[in-house]
Amino acid sequence: MIFGKMWDIQVNFNKKVFLEKYGKEFESLSEEDRITYCKDFFNHTVVEIVEVMQEVPFKMHTNQNKKINKENLLEEFVDVFKYLIGWVQLMGFSRQEFENKFFDKSKIVEERFKKQNGG
Q1: How many Cα atoms within 13 Å fall on the side-chain side of residue 13?
Q2: 59-87: string of b/e by CB count within 10 Å (b at 16+)?
Q3: 29-66 pLDDT, tens per residue?
Q4: H helices within 23-94, ranges in order?
Q5: How far apart are the first and last CA of the chain?
Q6: What is the pTM of this model?
Q7: Checking CA distances to 89, which of 15, 26, 31, 108 falls within 20 to 30 Å?
Q8: CATH dotted code for 30-116
């Protein structure tokens, strides 16, 4: 239920952005448009992932006393998540399709883990 609400918030935002910024109906994008915007979603997602890493003091060669700002880190994770959901929506998948594939893939990963680890 909560994921459904997040999905709806993101699809409504995507509709607004595409209509106001590009003059296009989100659900009616051509395959050519989806491919073009897919590259944009990829680039934006990568930028957000980099921002996640900028919140983590991970450089082994420096003496960093920086503590993780969990609020900032969480906000960057949300940005990544929003772009990923939007990207799935851009490519024309429904929430139900995504959820079904998530659960199917989770079973496969779990089975693979068991086989590889003697379970």
Answers
A1: 12
A2: eeeeeeeeeeeeeebeebeebbebbebbb
A3: 999 999 999 999 999 999 999 999 999 887 777 666 67
A4: 31-54, 70-90
A5: 32
A6: 0.89
A7: 108
A8: 1.10.287
